Amino acid sequence: MGSINWLNGITLPTMRTILTDGASQEAKGQHMAKTATFGIMHVVTAFTVTYAMTGNIAIAGIVTFVEPLVNTVMHYFFDKYWDHPRIEKLRADMHRGLRLIMRRSPAAQA
To answer: pTM for the complete prediction?
Structure first.
């Protein structure tokens, strides 16, 4: 499981493959810094959007910290069931459907 098959047969390496296949400690550190920066950006965005929608600092603060907790739990189950045979079949069916849509789109016919 070192790659992801994408549209039009393009195969992309997974992040696990990128980080374990001879990657330097510096590259791993840069990836961790990028991940941490994204996490901070996510928290700031969540607070800003919720505050803009509600005008309430308390609600914005609660949503800012509850949403990542829920998202983390959801990600656990997402990862756990990603390789389940039924989910693999669903992904394959979606892939075929997307390829069909892409072939029939006006942009593809131009």
So the answer is: 0.49
